[in-house]
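Appendix C reproduces, verbatim, an entry submitted by the partner laboratory led by Prof. M.T., so that reviewers can inspect both the input and the predicted structure.
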Amino acid sequence: MAITGRAAALAFASVLAVVFSPAPGWTLLLANGLLIAAITVDLALAGGVRTLVFTRSGPSTARLGTAVPLVLAVTNTGRRTVRAQIRDAWPPSSGATPRVWRVTVPAGQRRFCDLVLRPTRRGDRHPYRITVRSLGPLGLAGRQGRHAAPWRLRVLPPFTSRRHLPAALARLREIEGDATLRGGGQGSEFDSLRDYVPGDDVRMIDWRSSARRGTVAVRSFRPERDRRVICLLDTGRTSAGRIGDTPRLDHAMDAALLLGAVAARAGDRVSLIAHDASARVTLPAAGGPNPLVRMSAALALVEPVLTETDHQAIASSVLRIAIRRSLVVLFTELVPAVIEEGLVPALPALTARHTVIVAAVSDPRLAELAAGRGDVRALYSAAAAEQTLLQRRQLTSLLRGYGVQVVDAPPATYASAVTDSYLSLKSAGRL
């Protein structure tokens, strides 16, 4: 049973009547009797909450930062009209609005409550419960109960780097799209025969075809398709660090999604590994024009783990799933604990069989602090920032000495810089 504020107001009014009454005892008995009778009648006439059935409809997946409209349907299977106050409880990170509805559902009919979710975090979001309060016609009291209407909304990574996709695809078309790249060194996949022109490499002449055609024919090639690209996300403790309001891991996810979209459009097969002390996600290589659905769904539940990353286990995982030569893009952080103590001992096994890119997102705040000279405090901050930047440059040189390409870019250009490195390797025929 639930008592409303209207009943409380009547009780307060009866107190005033007792205070100013010449016969307070009889007035108190009369006021209490009338109030109890009214509440009893109201409670008896209230519709039952157990006769309500709740169902949900709407999207089950959405990207972070987008509004998700859901519909909560209320069906009255009882014989009385239900005047209900409905509260739908969701986790705070779901951003659910509104939380409460007042609806009147006649017997045997259905009403709909519109709900909008604006999630602020990745992952699965489930509603807690639905609390229903069915009031009587006087609005003094009612019945209250709980219902469950299960639903799961999977919040995917936001993919803010989507704006770079048209430019990346335009560059991809220049490399191996409508205008096929010609000549030796640009690929080893045979494309077609064409007439010889002065300046062509004589080693590309197809003598048998030339004899049949009566003219000198040259073989033309294009860069290989169906290559392997492995997006390897370090989910160890350093990935939990934030740049602005966004964790490093989320920046890495965004860059991996852009790289995966471009690589799949180029005809390459994209794999995904999220690893710290153990593998969190292992998504096998698959072709297709759009791997974003698979990758986004796999990354939605990945969170940083406050533990050291096992780079030897990472190398073993890569070597186990990648038999052919592949491009391995490791999204990690440029700090000595990760590079010198963890990654460098595992690099020879990777670089011997694969092309490796190490991609790290840099903090723009470091450049701002390094430029500070206003006072003593700013000077110390500038010295610390310069030391950090120098350390990153030294680690970059160390990795390049092992034949590794390094991307160290701020968040605004991080995703596009990683994809540009992939396209540069593809253009040079190094994949």
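Residues 2-45 form one domain. Additional entries are available on request from the coordinating office.
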